[in-house]
Amino acid sequence: MKHYFKNQFFSRHRNKDHFKRRTFIIFFLLLGNALFAQTDIRGKVTSATTGLEGVTVRVKGEKTATQTDIDGNYLIRALGDGTLIFSYVGSVTQEIPIYNRSNIDVELQLVNQQLNDIVVVGYGTQRKKDLTGSIAVIDAKSLENRNQPSVGQALQGLAPGVRVSGPNMPGQNPRIEIRGVGTINNNSPLFVVDGMYVDDITNITPDDVETMQVLKDASASAIYGSRAANGVIVITTKKGRANNKLNINFDGFQGVSNIHQRLDVMDREQYQALMRAAAINDGKPIDAANDPNSSDFVSDIDTHWQDEAWQPGPFSKYSIALSGGSAVSKFRISGDYNHRKSTFTGQGPDFQRYHFTINTDQSYKKLKFSQTLLFSKTDGFPLTSTHAYSAVINVLKSLPTLGIYDPNSPGGYAGTESKHGVIDLNMIGWNNLIKRENKSTYVLGGFNASYEINKYLSLRGTTSYNYTAQNNRIFTPVYRIGYFFTNTEAKLDEFRNEFSQFTANGVLNFKRDFGKHNIDAIVGAEYYKEDFDFLYAGARGYSQPYAMVLDAGPSGKANAGSKQAMAYMSEFARVNYNYADRYLLTASLRRDANSRFAKQNRVGYFPSVAAAWNVNNESFIKLPEVISALKIRSSYGELGNSSMGNYLYQPVLNVQGGYVFGGNYQQGATVTRLVNQDVIWESTKSFNIGMDLSMLNNTVILTGEYYRNTTNNILFAVDIPLSNGAVGAPTVNSAGMRNSGIEIGLTYQKPRTDKLNFSFSGNISTVTNVVTQLGNNVPIILNSNITEVGHPIAQIYGWQVDRLFQSADDVSKSAYQPYAQAGDIKFKDLNNDNIIDDKDKVVLGNSIPKFTYGFGLNMDYMNFDLYAQFYGVYGNSIFNVERQILERSGRERENQLTSQGNFWTPTNTNTDVPRASIADLNQNSRASDRYVEKGSYLRMTDLQLGYRFKQIKKLSNLRLYGAIQNVFTLTKYKGMDPEISAIPRTIDGVSTGNIFERGVDNGSFPSPRTFMVGLQLSF
Amino acid sequence: MKKILVLVIVLFSLQSCSKKLDLVNPNAPNPGEFFKTDADARSAVNSVYNSLYYDGQYHRWLILGENFRSDEMYASGPWDQMTTIGSFTQATIWENVGDPYWHAYMGIYRANQVIEGLTDNTEVSESAKDQALGQIYFLRGLYYFNLLKIYRNIPLITAVPKSTAQYTQPLATPEAIWQQIESDWKKAADLLPVNWPSGEAGRATKGAAIAFLGKAYLWEKKYSEAKAQFEQIIDKSPYTYDLMPNYGDNFNETAAANNKESIFEIQWNTKVGGAQPGAQNGDPNAAALLSSEWAMIISPVGFGYGDGKARPWLVDEFLKEKTVTNEEDPRLNLTLLYKRPGEKVYGLDWATGITTADQNSVYIKKYTLWRTKSGYNAALDAKNAMPYYVMRFADVLLMYAETLNELGETTAAYAPINRVRGRAHLADLTTGLTQKAMREQIAHERVTEFCGEGVRFDDLRRWGWLGDPIKLAQLKQHDPEFKTYLPGREYYPQPQNLLNTAGYPQNTGW
After folding, report:
1. How many whole angstroms separate alpha carbon A942 and alpha carbon A1007?
2. Arithmetic mean of pLDDT, A243-269
C-alpha cells in the first residue's frame, strides 16, 4: 500500500516521506547515544593506497550502516565495544572490532574490483554490473605501463575487439579499429574525453587518464548515435581528491629507440654483377657506373644504406602532477614534456610535446562545477619521402654505388647521375635537406555544471571548445641530389590550419528506486559545430644564408585559403531499468541532423535496446560454488555514420581553370565535380550477445561475446568511369559490409597478499568481414588487392607462379606470355585459356587476420614488480612490396636482396630466381604469390621491471623501473616488420594505401626496439 | 514538475533553429547563378580550353604518346611509365593510360555543360551563344578525335549525366564517334569567325574547323570530302594562311605564337599563371604553371630530364637531299641535336655538355629553348612559352597533297608539296612519280617537315604501316621499340578504371 502511494505521487509527497525517515533516524540515534554511549568513528577505506568509494560500513548486529564517499571516507556512530563490518563487492568482507577507537582506517583486499567499478557510459555513469552493453574497461595502470606518449599506441592488445596498428612513428596516431572494418570510410572510433569530443588523441597523455572504456555494441554506444558506428572510446581523466593534502607525483624516463630490423641487400660488387648481367640479357649497354671498362665505373663507393640511415633515437619524458582538494573544491594540475628524437639520419621523425592540464571541481550546495583546461604544443619533423616509395623502401633499394655526400653538389648530397642509369632517391639527403616542420597547438577547454533539482532529478550541462592551430612549413633549399632531384630556386611553403570544435549539451537525469524497480533515465540535447580554416602562403627565390620566413622570399608569392564547417543537432533519451539486480533493460534513441546531408535527408534516428540477466541473483537458480557472478546480456541497435566531406550535395563552380588568349590569361568557370543530393546516413545494425562470468570469489573473470555488425548505405565515392570527365567521384550510399566475430577476455587476479601478487589478463578476438555491396558491384582491383562482393575487403590478389621457363621450346609449349623467354617465370594458366592475362589472377590471401590476441602479466614480489605484455595476430597474409622491389632480378636497376644473385642463366637452372633483366618484359615482378607471405606474429611489446623503495620520510612512493619495448617478435614474415600500417603512396601514378589496399606492406615504418629507465616519485 | 517541463522545453528549443544546419559552401560560387550573361558564356568556354592544359593532354602524356610511339623517338629515361609507351607495354592502371582519357573527357564534360547551359537560354545574346558554341563544338570534336585515335573504343557522351545511373555509358562504335566528330566540326565551321581580335588570338577559328574536318575525312578515307575542305582554306579569301618565310619562326619562343602558319595551337605562357608545375590531376588551380613539360622531357640530361631521344635514322633522312644552294636542309639544325662539328647544347660544347654515355645520342631540338637559354638545367625549370602545334598550314598542304594522290590526282599533288619544300630551299620534286612512289615521297616530306611534332605515329596508323610486314620491319629497324609491338597495340589498352567501373572489354591485342 505504501509503495503504491509512493509510486503514484512521488513528486508531491517526496519531502514528507523524507522528513519522516530522517526524524526516525535522528530519534534512534539520540536514543542510542543516551543509553549505550555511542561515539563517532571516522576513517578511510582504501585499496592499494587509493580511497574506495561505495564501501558499506555496518555495525555488527545493528541496522546502522553507511557508505564511504568518493575518497573512501566514512563516518558512523557505534558503541565502543562493537564491531564494524566493511563489505564491498569484489573484496573479502572484513570485521574489525572498535576497541573504543575513534579513527579506523581499513585497507580492503580487492580480489577483483571490476564488477563494481563505475563505468562511464555516454552522458552518464553506471556500475559495471548494471551494464547491458559491451564495454571493455582499461585502467590507468595498464596504460601507464606502456610508456607511450599518447593513449593510442598504449591501447594495443589490452582490450578484446580493439585492434591497434601503428605507423610506429612518434606523433602519429595509430590506426585503431573496433570490431573490424566497419566501413570503407574512416574507421576511427569516436573519442570522448570527460564528456567532450576530441578528434586527435595524440594530445591525451596516458599519465592523465584514470580509466578508458571502449563501447563496442549498440547498447553502449547508440546514445552517440550518428558518430558511434565505429565504436566509442570514453576517457576519464584523473581528478583531485578531497583528502585535504597536496599530492605530488613525478614520473620521468629516458631511453633510446632503435630500428634494429635489417634486410640482406647486395653490396657494390654483387649489385654491379647483377646489373651487368641484366643489361647484357636485355641487349642494352651496361650502365657506366657498373661497367669496369668505363671511366665512370664506380669502384670506391660501397654504401650500406640501412646502416647509414638508421640511428639510435634517444627519447625522454618528464611529467609532474599536483593534486588535492577539500570537500568543496578539488584540483589536479599536470604537465609533461616528451621528446622523441629521430631514429633516421636527418631531421625526422622527431617529436616534441609540451602538455599541460588543469582539472578543477567545486561544489556549492546542490550545484557542482568542473572545469578542464588542456594545452598541448607539439613540434615535429616528420619523415617524408618522395618518388613513389616510402622512406623505408627508398633506403632498402638505394644503390650501393651511390655515395651519401657530395660536397660539390648544391646542398651537399650525392644522387644518381646518368651513369647509374636509374633515378634513385638519397633518403638521407632528402631527410636532411627539405626542412619540414610541423607545429601544432591544441587547447581544450570544458565546463561542466550539474544541479541536483531534487533527490531524483538532476540536470547537467557541458560545453567544450577544442582548438587546434597547425603550422606546417616546408623550406626547400637549392639542392641537387643527382640530376633528377634538383631544385634551382629555394622556396618556402607555409600551411596553416585552424580547427575548432564547439559542443554544448544538456542532460536531464532521473534516477529512482521503486522497491525492487530501479529506473535511471536521461533525456538530452546537443549542438555541435566544427570549423576548419586553411591558409597557404609561399615565396621563392631565397638566397643563402636562408632566412626561412615569407618576407625574405623575393618572388613567387603565392597564397591560397579555404573554409569548412559542419554542424549537427541531436536529441537523445535513454532508460535503464533494473529489477532487483536480476533483470536489466536499456533502451535508447537518438535523433541526429547533420549539415552534410541535403535538407530532405538530414535527419537520422538511431535506436537501441538491450537486456541482461544477472543469473547469480536469481533465487530459483543455484549456481555452483565456484561461480560468483554470471550475467548474460544481449543488445541490438542502429548506429550512424556521416563520414564524408562537407557540402558534397552542393554543386560548385570552379573559376580557376582558364586559358591564355593573345598572351593574356582569361578566367574560366565550370563545374568539375558531379554531386549527388540523394545521400542519406550510413547505418550499422549491431547485434551483440555476451556473457560475464566471475569465478572463484571473483578472482577469475571471463567475458565472452558474439557480435554481428551489418553496415549498409556506406558513404562511398565509388569510382565512376573516367568518361564522365569529372574530378573525383560523388559520394553515394553504395556499399555494404558485415563484420562478425567472437571476443573472449579473461582476467585472473590472485587475492592480494603481502609478498607475492599476480594478475593476468588476456583476450582474443576474431573478425569475419564480408563485403555485401560495392558500388555497381564491379570488383575493385588494385595493384595487389581485390575487393568484391561476398568476400572480405581487400583480399590479396594476383597471379600464381608455376616455375621458371627452362628453354625457348618450353615457352612456346606453354600458355602464351607475350614476352617470355627462358629464365622468366611461367605463371599458372588457371582458367586454361592458354594465355596468361588478367583472367588468371586469383585471390592469394586474406588481409584480415583470423584472430588477434593480447595478454599481459602483472606481478609483484616484495618490492619488485614485473609487467609483461604481448600482442599478436594470426592468419592474415601480407603482400610484401619490400620484396617485390628487392626481388625483381634487377628490374629498374635498383638494389636487390643478395638472394637475387642466384638468378637463372642457361647454366644455372636450378634456381627460382628469374633471369636478370632491367626491362623485365615478362613482368616477373608482377603481383603474384611470390610476394605473398603469412603475416602472423606474436610480439612481446613490453617488459618492465620496477623496484619500489620503502617509505622514505615524506616520500610516499619512490619507484625505479626499466623497460624494453618490442622485446621480440615471433614471425615468419620476411619484411621489416609484420605490423604494417597503411602508408599512402603512389605507385606509377596510382595512389594506394587506401582501405582497399590493406595487407600491403608498402614499406611501413618498423616498430623500434626501445630501452628505457624511469623514476616515479610521489609526495 | 513545471520546472522540469520548462527545462525540457529549453533543451529542445535549441533544435528549433535548424537553419544552423544550412551551411553553404563558402569556397566557390553556386552554379545555379551561372549562364546569365555573355561573360558567363565566355568563362564557360575558356574552361573547355583549360582541359588542353592538363597532364593527360598537351602538358605531357598526349604529346609523349604521340611522339614516343612513333619511330622518331624513344624513351631513354628509366621511368617505366615513359619507357613502356614507346614499347607498347603499358599497364592499364597507369596514369599514362588513364590520364589522356580522363582529361579529354574532362573537356567534353565541360563542353556539354556549355551546350546545355546555352540551350533555351534567353539571357545570353545570340552572337555570344554562336561564338561560344562554335568553339565548344570545335574543342569537343578535337577531344573526341584524340580519344578515338588513341583508344578506338570509347563511349559517346554528349550530355551531362543527370543521375548516378547515367555515369556509365556503353561503348560506341568508332563509326559513331567519327560521325560525331564530323558533325561537331561542321557545326563549328558554321558558327566560328574567320578571325579573332589579337587579344583573343588562340581561339578556334572557322579555318581551323574546316582544316580539322578535312583531316577527319582524310583519316576516314573520304578523300573527295577531305579535298573539298582543304581547298576552302588554301589561298582562298577570306583565309590568309601561309607558310612562315623561315621554318624556324615556328619554333621561336618570341615570334612563334599565333602566326599565319598556325591553324590551331596550344597557348603556353610563362608570364601568367602560377608557379606550381602544371601537372594537374584534379580541379583546375590558378597556381598552375601554364607551360608544357615537353622541353624538359626531351632535353639532354644535365639540361632537362633526357627522358626522350630521337632515333639516328632521322639524321640520314634529312641528309638525303641538299638545298638548291647545295647546303644542308635548314630544318635539320632546327630539329635535331647530335654530335657534329660545332654543335652546341644550350651554349655549351657538345663534348663537355653531354655525358660520355650520351655522346652518340640524338635529341630533338624543336620546342626547346636551345637558341635562347644556356647552361645546365636550362630546360629543367619548365618555363617554355613556345606554342605546341596541333596543326599548322604546312600540314594542311601535305594532307591536301596526300588527298589528291589518293584520289589519283597525283600530278596535282606536286604544287602543295613543292610549296613546303621550297620554304626549306629544296628543289621542286621531279615529276612523274607513281601514286605509290608519291606516297613514299609524302612520307619522307612529312618526316622532315614535322619531325618531333607528334604527327608521325598518326601517319603510320593512317597509312596502315603497322599492319604491313615490310613496313613494320622497316619501323623495327628505325626503332627497336617496335620489336615489342603486338597487333592491336597501335591503340592504348582500356584504362583499368573503365574495365572496373564500366566493365568494358579490353581492347584487342592487350
Report:
1. 12
2. 92
**β-strands A659-661, A801-804 pairing:** unpaired
User: Residue B303, exposed/middle/buried by CB under 10 A (0-12, 13-18, 19+)?
Assistant: buried
Question: Residues A669-678: what's their mean pLDDT?
Answer: 91
Residue carrying the nine cell digits 571548445: A465
A789 CB burial (10 A radius; 0-12, 13-18, 19+) = middle
State whether residue A595 sits within 8 Å of chain B by CB: yes
Q: Alpha-carbon distance B42 to B47, whole Å?
A: 9
pLDDT attached to residue A25: 46
Structural element, H or E, at residue A746? strand A732-749
Please name the residues between 842 and 871 in chain A that touch chain B, using a CB distance below 8 Å: none
Residues 6+ apart with CB under 8 A from A449: A367, A368, A369, A370, A460, A461
- A725:B102 CB<8 A: yes
Query: For chain B, how far is it from start to end, CA to CA, in angstroms?
Result: 78
Q: A785: which strand partners? A: A796
Find where cell 637531299 sits.
B321
Of the listed ranges A158-162, A851-855, B121-125, B438-442, the least confidently predicted one is: A158-162
Phi-psi category of residue B199: left, alpha or beta, with phi > 0 → left and psi -120 to 50 → alpha: alpha
The predicted structure's pLDDT at residue A8: 39
Beta-carbon contacts of A542 under 8 Å, excluding residues fewer than 6 positions away, are A477, A490, A491, A492, A548, A552, A553, A554
Give the orientation angle of helix B61-68 with respect to helix B456-463, to 10 degrees.
Answer: 60
Best to test chain B binding among A724, A733, A821 (most B CBs inside 10 Å) = A724
pLDDT per residue as tens digits for the range A168-205: 777 677 778 888 777 777 778 888 988 888 877 888 88
The count of CB pairs under 8 A between chains A and B is 310
d(CA A414, CA A431): 13
For B256, the 3-state DSSP assignment is coil
Task: Provide the pLDDT for residue B388.
Answer: 93
- Could you tell me the three cell numbers for A448? 561542466
CB atoms closer than 10 angstroms to residue A823:
26
Helix H or strand E encompassing A685: strand A682-695
Mean predicted confidence (pLDDT) in B273-288: 72
Residues of chain A with Cβ-Cβ distance to B31 below 8 Å are 651-653, 671
- B489 DSSP β-pair partners: none
Dig out the grid coordinates for A19 from the structure: 522528513
The predicted structure's pLDDT at residue B1: 53
| Helix (DSSP H) and strand (DSSP E) numbers for chain B | 19, 8
**Cα distance between residue B343 and residue B348, in whole Å:** 9
Contact at CB, A724 and B167, closer than 8 angstroms: yes
For residues B214-242, give the mean pLDDT.
97
Strand partners, A1001: A880
Q: B23 and A566: CB-CB below 8 Å?
A: yes
Sign (positive or negative) of CA dihedral A806, A811, A812, A815: positive
> pLDDT tens digits for B363-413?
999 999 888 888 877 776 656 788 999 999 999 999 999 999 999 999 999
pLDDT of residue B373: 84
Q: Is B280 exposed, middle or buried (0-12, 13-18, 19+ CB in 10 A)?
A: buried
Is the pLDDT assigned to residue A114 strictly greater than 60? no
Suggest the residue from B136, B158, B167 to mutate for an interface test with chain A (most A CBs closer than 10 A).
Answer: B167
- pLDDT digit string (tens) for A755-811? 888 899 999 999 999 999 987 777 888 889 999 999 999 999 999 999 999 999 999
Whether A668 and B49 lie within 8 Å, measured CB to CB: yes
A-chain residues near B15 (CB < 8 A)? 525, 569, 571, 593
Cell of A231: 565504436
CA-derived radius of gyration, chain B: 25
Position B300: which residue type? P
